[in-house]
Amino acid sequence: MATQHSRSAARLMMAPAVILLLGWMLVPLTMTLYFSFSKYLPLRGDSLAGGLDWVGFANYSRFVTSSSFWPSVQATLIIVGGVLVITVVLGVLLAILLDQPMWGQGVVRILVIAPFFVMPTVSGLVWKNMFMDPVNGLLAHLWKAFGAEPVQWLSEASMPSIILIVSWQWLPFATLILLTAIQSLDSEQLEAAEMDGAPVLKRFWFIVLPHLSRAITIVILIQTIFLLSIFAEIFVTTAGAFGTKTLTYLIFQRVLESQNVGLGSAGGVYAIILANIVAIFLMRIVGKNLDA
């Protein structure tokens, strides 16, 4: 049992790391809040030393009344929802498949996980130029082989294309977490159910899936945190056109158009609020599995 002295020593040793972490988070957040109430135009020669024009909630009002605000929120939630459905469903199936004994199992697992280590910009460019190009892309040649007209993926099916690109990058992460969870499943339960005559689907539904519930919850929570700030894939593919402009991309666009850091900071605060709302919702709905 830890004594009071050992607890105090542990807190003392952890204090520098905690202080550094808090500073790393609080300083940018404080500056963002400060700029959001100001008119700050550094690209036009304004400097912090010269003082900022205090505008109150004007930046917030201007950002939220923009015609692109609510469509960008909707696009963000659609992308997050679509990616989560694809990665969780396919992640479970891939994890079950990779758990089966096969020749070259280690190599197959490495190949499946590899896309997660590809940079988002590189991933977007590869899909845009190698797969979805309507003239020279692999999908265009595949369509022509079947006598069909190639699809303009990034204009005619822009949202599904973005969801597909992002899902391809995040599927390995979900698969890795779910595979680890499956490998911790007691095989005796499955063997007993099989001996009792339970079919494969029932064994999956009543044994495997409940065992994966905590892992699925972790996958959903972690992916949602990162997907709410999706930017690079959209920047290099559609540039926010054809209904793919997310809230993060809108913030970037508004700062470039107005050259007003204060306006972008107000958008950043809205993005933080949206992320917290989604996080609270997820914790109430699926986060209960972590306490089970």
Strand order of the largest sheet: 1-2
Number of strands: 2
Q: Largest sheet at a glance?
A: 2 strands, antiparallel
Mean pLDDT value: 83
Bin the helical content: over 70%
Q: What fold name goes in the CATH topology slot of the domain at 67-259?
A: MetI-like fold
Distance between the termini: 26 Å
Count of helical segments? 13
What does this 3D model show about the protein?
Strands 1-2 form a two-stranded antiparallel sheet. The relative contact order is 0.14. The two termini are 26 Å apart. The longest helix is centred in the N-terminal third of the chain and has 33 residues. The radius of gyration is 24 Å and the shape is globular. With 292 residues, it is mainly α. Helix 3 packs parallel to helix 8 and helix 9 packs antiparallel against helix 10. It has a domain of 193 residues: MetI-like fold (Orthogonal Bundle), CATH 1.10.3720. The chain contains 13 helices and two strands; from the N terminus they run H-E-E-H-H-H-H-H-H-H-H-H-H-H-H.
